[in-house]
Amino acid sequence: MLLIIGTIRLPPDRLEQARPAMERMVLASRAEDGCLEYSYAQDVLDAGLIRVAEAWRDRSALDAHFRSPHIADWRSSWPELGIGERNLVLYEAGEPMPT
Question: In this structure, are residues 55 and 2 in contact, taking their beta carbons and an 8 Å threshold?
């Protein structure tokens, strides 16, 4: 399993403008074969900070995601939405374990 964990930043005053694009991205990504989890969450202490959490079955599923039309649309919206800072890290994980 592959995990992508990190953040993106946008101006807080553009959050409502960005919400429809983020919703489209999340819904389309969750529908992809091999997507186990995909979410964006606004940080409760920093309005312009969006926390990203993704889980993918394997590298081929993630590579297909990177080639998808919806990720191209999402990335093309960044300049208008003021999204510039991205800090995303890819991790390889083993099987999930209950805590």
Answer: yes
Global pTM value: 0.91
Cβ neighbours of 5 (radius 10 Å): 14
Q: Is residue 36 part of a domain?
A: yes
Sequential pLDDT tens for the chain (99 residues): 999 999 999 999 999 999 999 999 999 999 999 999 999 999 999 999 999 999 999 999 999 999 999 999 999 999 999 998 999 999 999 887 888
Angle between helices 15-30 and 69-81 (to 10 degrees): 170
Whether 96 contacts 9, CB under 8 Å: no
Burial class of residue 65 in the structure, from the number of CB atoms within 10 Å of its CB (0-12 exposed, 13-18 middle, 19+ buried): buried
CATH number of the structural domain spanning residue 46? 3.30.70.100
Tokens of 64: 């297909």
